[in-house]
Amino acid sequence: MKLSKRELYWTDLRSKRSITEVHLNLNTCGSFNFYDPLLSPNVGVVSVAPGIDWFSPSLPNSWQLNLHSFRFADYWLLQYVRTGDQTILLCLDQVVNDYLDKVWRQGWRQRAALKLSKNVAFKHVLSDTAVANRAAVFACLLGQVGNGFDLLDEQGLREALTEHVLHAAADEHYNSNNHGLFNDLHLLLGLINAPHEKILVDVAPKVIARLLTTYLERQVNAEGIHLEHTPSYAVLWVLLGRKTLDVLERLAELYPDLACAGAEKVRQSMQCVSENLWWFTKPDGELVNFGEQGRTDAAKWIPTDAFQHGTKVFPSAGYGFFKNEDSYLGFVAAYHATKTGRKGYRAASHKQRDELHLVWYDAG
């Protein structure tokens, strides 16, 4: 494949900030994120190489999670895509090297000894989404080499990329709920931005097949009901479907051999789930509070004319509804499990598997 100067491509997979929007507005991409203390409207406001002990048990978990998962990199990379300011990449390269020196290279040598440990920091280093997320960030930086950008340690970063990709691609580390979607999409994002990296090319066919299996067969049943967590996660599932289609299209342009036949099935499933979300929407415009969801406005793109008012039962999923202009009754009596039964992981979804819940709404 002939390589040329590459434009970086990024899409924020983990954030739910666009959950009620049709399109993400990059100009406000930090407005709804309540979880990432490292985010800042201006790159450079936070220290790019924090002088802290990364493994200190006294640190709040939120800081460890953000430092070790590189969630802040989503905002930085989106800002780079929007502005083209290479200072952002330079800062990110410093963070990456600081992380590799203080965490990854230390932790990797101790991995066998700490595997069964309750060390909180190390748990975040090897969490089921963080490894692939960092691999995608590494690939972005490696893919920009030659575009007037030099890395502090290109060889070291490439070695870390290989280790991260092999870990994230291994089935024994795979989590077959929505975390698996985040995991595999990040690996494919890495390939889009660094198509010359052999390790990413090698794992791509397996990762694509696994992504589609999890998305289409484990997350949704034949009734078109999303099974995991809460109704808001069904909204997130649709948003991830849109991003999945974009990622697969870009990969097919780079590597025609990676073009897959699953895209149309993804579109059909997304349409079905989107329509069925109408039943999970109360007359006041909020999603019904099943599980641990809390108050969430329904997405604007949920079809409003997919069904007539009345009753609807989804027997396989265990849901039933009555809905008209003013009143609403929703119940769930179900046992949901979207994870595969695998040693070392619970054969369960995020939500309570044995759920019994009834919600009645009448004119507010």
How would you describe what is shown here?
There is one protein chain. This protein has eleven helices and four strands. Mean pLDDT is 76; it is low at 1-5, 16-55 and 342-349. With 364 residues, the protein is α+β, with helices and mostly antiparallel strands. α2 (72-83) packs antiparallel against α3 (86-109) and α6 runs parallel beside α8. Strands 1-2-3-4 form a four-stranded antiparallel sheet, with no helix packed on it. The chain is elongated and about 60 Å long. A hairpin with a 4-residue loop joins β1 (310-314) and β2.
Output the keywords.
44% helix; 364 residues; 4 strands; 4-stranded antiparallel beta sheet; elongated; alpha+beta; 11 helices; single chain; disordered N terminus
Gist?
The chain is α+β, with helices and mostly antiparallel strands and 364 residues long. It contains eleven helices and four strands, in the order H-H-H-H-H-H-H-H-H-H-H-E-E-E-E.
Write the layout of secondary structure elements.
Elements: H1 61-69, H2 72-83, H3 86-109, H4 111-114, H5 120-125, H6 130-143, H7 154-169, H8 178-193, H9 198-218, H10 231-254, H11 263-276, E1 310-314, E2 319-323, E3 327-335, E4 354-362
Antiparallel strand pairs: 1-2, 2-3, 3-4
Helix pairs in contact: 2-3, 6-7, 6-8, 7-9, 8-9, 8-10, 10-11
